[in-house]
């Protein structure tokens, strides 16, 4: 059977890249790409496709994979083959599936690891940040990653991205044909809507020295997350408000975070109510932290989507967020928006959510409605619709 043709009566077989979610390759700590890949792995089967998890494993590690099978070549070797071999030569997915296995109908790459394959390829590209804003991206292997993403954009038969904002970036910086791009908003898992018991929540809060009602931020400490201004905005609040509400920052120290870490520790030494949880990896505890928050503050300067926003909505927490890039699209009016470059604006938004009960109630209700629109089940259904469109061509 020609792998480019599909029997419409048969279930579509999807080779899903799970490289970013494979425990052997990630050490068990998922970033945004890993969360996305894992969510598709869990939800795509319910949307009516057969999912075959595949990874670009390092040489020698193929037999140790936990989520699926290894593609026949590591990504560096497959990329090298792309460069030196004729364009008619493709990476065979049949080798990974084993002798006698039915071929896959389509391959979905959930990150930049894309090479020519013996079936159509759909690629999810989240943004063009390293090119559009190089000052916010680590210089380590930046040129190589930029080249790989641009190559991926050209090789894929179709591109999925998480927001309409990201379309503009992919067209401008990667030269992707806008007709080849579909927007599929990311989602939130169903368990985020299940409020933990007060006892469970309080145990977690007590473990970390937290008092219910704090301002919460979740994300890696790196320049584009704008946590420096969040800290400044918190310290500009009236003393009575700072005394009543802690600032809780959840996230690992990332690239160029040394000065921010120093400022956080200086504030703590001065007795400010600033808590930094840099080693939290338990998803259940994270849900408890959302549930105990009085407000979620997301001052990011650039997001292709902004998943923590939707997690806060589903958790029943009022949200204040930046009015830039994809965030107004994702919030869709359910959050108090502010200029992320203005410390005064951030302080005003924090004060509003702390003191205005009517605004808080409106944000909680609107956030819950918005989260119900942005589930992984819905994302999976829309993703499958893209597969079918690609396979019709």
UniProtKB/TrEMBL annotation:
It comes from the Bacteria. GO terms for molecular function: glycosyltransferase activity. The keyword Transcription regulation does not apply. CDD domains: GT4_MtfB-like. Pfam families: Glyco_transf_4, Glycos_transf_1. Signal peptide: none annotated. One of its GO terms (biological process) is lipopolysaccharide biosynthetic process. InterPro entries: Glyco_trans_1, Glyco_trans_4-like_N. Residues 212-368 form the Glycosyl transferase family domain. Residues 31-188 form the Glycosyltransferase subfamily 4-like N-terminal domain. This is Glycosyltransferase. Keywords: Transferase.
